[in-house]
Description:
Layout: E1 26-35, H1 40-45, E2 55-65, H2 70-73, E3 76-83, E4 86-93, E5 101-111, H3 123-126, H4 129-132, E6 136-152, E7 155-168, E8 171-184, H5 188-198, E9 203-205, H6 210-216, H7 239-264, H8 267-286, H9 288-291, H10 296-322, H11 326-347, H12 350-365, H13 375-379, H14 382-400, H15 409-429, H16 436-471, H17 478-482, H18 490-506
Antiparallel strand pairs: 1-5, 1-8, 1-9, 2-3, 2-6, 3-4, 4-5, 6-7, 7-8
Helix pairs in contact: 5-12, 7-8, 7-12, 8-10, 8-15, 10-11, 10-12, 14-15, 15-16, 16-18
Amino acid sequence: MAKKTKRSEAATDGADANVGNGVAPTEEFELKLEVDPSSLDALLATALLNSATATDRVQDSVYFDTPGEAVRKAGFSLRVRTIGDRRIQTIKAESAAAAGLFVRSEWERDVDRAHPVLDDTPLPGAIDEAQLQQLAPVFHVNVLRKTVLLERDGASIEAVLDRGEIVAGDRSDRVLEIELERKQGDPAAMFDVAREIDRIAPLRLGVLTKSERGYALGSASPDKPVKASALALQPGTTTAAAFQAIVGACLRQFRLNEAILARTGNAGALHQARVALRRLRSALSTFKQVVRDDDYDRIRTELRWIAGELGRARNLDVLLDRVPGKAAAAPLRAAHGTAYAAVHAALASARLRGLMLDLSEWAAIGAWMSDSATAETRDRPVEAFAADALRKHRRRLKRLGRKLDRIGDEKRHAARIEAKKLRYATEFFAGLFPGKKSTRRYRRFAKALEALQTHLGDLNDLATAPMVLADLGLLGTPTAAALEPDLSRRAPLLAKAVKAHDRLIDRKRFWT
């Protein structure tokens, strides 16, 4: 089951919450969804948001920080929200969305002025007092908030539609999103409501808070592809929670790059979206013994579908970078345009939106979360699971990598895939094994693994180039001749791969 909010009687907007002036944090649990602007009129016209419980309020929120962004760097956001004659101060412990869901501690209180009041809040203990004296507004969020309480099969779901903008200096960003919060009943109802709304107005998982979007307005490169960020799993985290955090991190990377790709067609964003999917599929493989239920194979099949759509376009990006001359590139450019059109169609499809919602729900409250057969593993600290998973991946790679220079391309490809799984697992679990010795061993292990992947990747390119050209119908053409792989590189690459594999296997394990 999904985590229950500790503030089941409180509303998500400060206007209706019994915030008082207490110091104890509460917990916010919400599903954030982005609305397609072209569907707003249809959404506003539906009975879904026009029930007797619907209310509309104008909200003006001012976010505060220091010149060096000490509040953000300490892991918090700080705002003062004005609703009518009332001012409500909110401090939130910022955290990335876990599979599209936000679960955040927050501290709320009424204040009688526009500037923050920091008594009885966590900030004085987290930030130097001299820095706190420099607090000033950094951006505003102005929205018209429509709130409606929906009843579904005995469950109560609060739906909040925000329309407005985030303003930082001379920059702004439109706000058009829905937040769903389960007030009581089966948490699956929250996702059912999301699907119901999606049939009226296409929705996408939201992975950024308004605070993150406000800070992002100061970025000089808003369309820069987003690489995977370090995952800070803490020792003692349960295996189930670790899996959910990993899925959330992968979904976040995918969604951020998906948005850039849909907006700009950026090849780097396509590559990083594909990397996110590879990491996600690898995580499902690594955690298979814990999370495999009746939905597992269907989720994997759908992830393979969208990865394949991106993969075809990525192959053409790589080929175009290599082909010399405009004449030889012409057939590739035609195929490239077709492949990117297919990518954009897939990104805009109901199939992908459904997959994102299904994956988010499954990761949060899927049947695997209540399987008695895996309860012990699921609920124990993840360190033991991680060490066991890393041992298994390493053992498989050791076996598959024997005599790399003598086995066929297919078996060598299997070793390459296992090397990727081991690499992603090391990145997922590295933070669980702190200490100077483990950190030193991790760096050496990761470096050796990266070298092996590089050589296996180069060998795979030599082996698959003819197949890619055949799929494009280009064999025997000047384009194929221009892309003819240099097979003289094969023997040296095989020697390097063998050496890199042996060096990796000799590296001491950082997880012991």
